[in-house]
Amino acid sequence: MAEREQADLGFGHSCQKTGPVDISQWDRLECGRILGHPLQSCPRRPEQFPKVKSFLSRIVGFLLVAGVQAQTPPSSPGGDQTVITSDTLDLNLGKAKGQKQGVFRGNVKVDEPRFSMIAKEMTVFFGDDDSVQQVEARENVEIERKDGSSKTKSEKALYDVREKKLTLLKGLKQPEVQTKDGKRVIADKIILFPEEDKMLTEGASRVMLQKP
Fold first, then answer.
1. Which domain holds residue 112?
2. Using CA atoms, how far apart are residues 68 and 204, in angstroms rounded to an integer?
């Protein structure tokens, strides 16, 4: 898929060097709604995404699961907080300029009590009711469970909220799922349906098992 051009996404300009994004505070800090006008400039401070925190809480248990549902995660000293950092952040939270979305660009890092993710770029797509529809991470995407049970690597990762499906896509390299027991699954396309305890591969596929 071709890279999207950077564009004004509804606040007059891109927000640069936003710093950590604490999603837990979104409801009281939502851009545009607090300012009273959907096209006003986004304030130069950490921005929050509606319902992304609850979305991440729902999918964190199976983002990194190769056909096995996650166990209850250990508590974190920082509490139930999800923080996203990136070099730039573009927001479109109104309907005037197309689909609602938030685009994190450059050195994207997601830190959640149960997993961490890095990527070059990440886009969160919202529906008309502000619910999360899809999350797309691109370029050198790595997602790792903090309990060390599994890790994924891919050039592109898509999560479809309605279908509850995580898809890892091929770029220059094939996507890969690594598990704690040493198993590696490599394929042109890897599809995870964690709630159904199922994983599918498409195209050239390999499974490598660690010798005991």
1. 15-68+83-168
2. 23
In a domain, 173, yes or no: no
Residue-wise pLDDT tens digits, 53-107: 444 444 444 343 333 333 334 444 445 677 889 999 888 876 666 678 889 999 9
CA 94, 99, 100, 102 torsion-angle sign = negative
Question: Which long-range contacts link 163-171 to residues 24+ away (Cβ below 8 Å)?
Answer: 164/59, 164/193, 164/194, 164/195, 165/191, 165/192, 165/193, 166/59, 166/62, 166/63, 166/191, 166/192, 166/194, 167/191, 167/192, 168/141, 168/192, 170/203, 171/139
Residues 150 and 73: their CA atoms lie apart, in Å, by 13
Q: In the block, which residue shows the tokens 């996507």?
A: 175
- Is 156 within the bounds of a domain? yes
The number of folded domains in the chain is 1
Question: CA 153 to CA 59: how far, in whole Å?
Answer: 17
Would 112 be classed as within a structural domain?
Answer: yes
Nearest to 122 by CA among 141, 143, 132, 137: 137
Residue 58 lies in a domain: yes
Radius of gyration of the chain (CA): 18
Q: Which region, left, alpha or beta, applies to residue 106 given φ > 0 means left and ψ of -120 to 50 means alpha?
A: left
pLDDT digits over 137-164, tens only? 999 999 887 877 778 899 999 988 888 8
d(CA 184, CA 153): 11
